[in-house]
């Protein structure tokens, strides 16, 4: 994204709502007085919650001021963790896991689907502004690889064809049902249980 485009989306200022300022006080109180910098992550989460799931640069400056630390100290936290978005993510934010188990099972093909249908580059909005995507590290569902996350939900046991259908529907503002694309129950074997079959509630 060009600097020109970025500056267009950046608001000049940011302030927490009254309710969130109340939350800020509660978060800061959890730490010793000389360690309030430790509240940086919960405060950045609050910014995202208030600001349509992304953190503008003005909010980074604002949080730094609230915590009496430098802009750079907040910026390095905000840019380190993939759960913090520094650009608007769109109504549907697709996070494709590309760590080894998912990669071996075809995650790169799913990334190609995202590039083709959502946007050429990560963290850019689709033409209809509904979706954006990014690559992330392991999301903890490796046993159902490859997988991706859309907003708060996991979509597992994918391949590029399932992902393509799912993303085309997303661009039509329709979210697929979350879970395994092979209808596996959690991480159970595809053809049903092979152990504990005599225990009804297992
Ligand atoms: S490697 Fe993809 S969920 Fe763990």
Residue share in helices? 25-40%
The main sheet orders its strands as 2-1-3-4-5
- Which structural class best describes the helix and strand composition? alpha/beta
- Proportion in β-strands: 5-15%
- Sheet bearing the most strands, described? 5 strands, mixed
Low confidence ranges: 1-6
**Would you list the SSEs in sequence order as H and E?**
HHHHHEHHEEEHE
Please tell me what the overall shape is.
Answer: globular
Mean model confidence by pLDDT: 92
Write a structural description:
This protein has a five-stranded mixed β-sheet, covered by helices on one side. The protein has 202 residues and is an alpha/beta fold. The model is unreliable at 1-6 (pLDDT under 50). It starts with a helix and ends in a 22-residue tail after the last strand. It is 39% helix and 10% strand. The protein binds FE2/S2 (inorganic) cluster. FE2/S2 (inorganic) cluster (FES) binds next to helix 6.
Could you outline the blueprint of secondary structure elements for this entry?
Layout: H1 3-9, H2 18-29, H3 40-50, H4 57-67, H5 71-80, E1 92-97, H6 100-104, H7 107-117, E2 131-136, E3 148-150, E4 153-156, H8 160-171, E5 179-180
Helix pairs in contact: 2-3, 3-4, 4-5, 7-8
The protein binds FE2/S2 (inorganic) cluster.
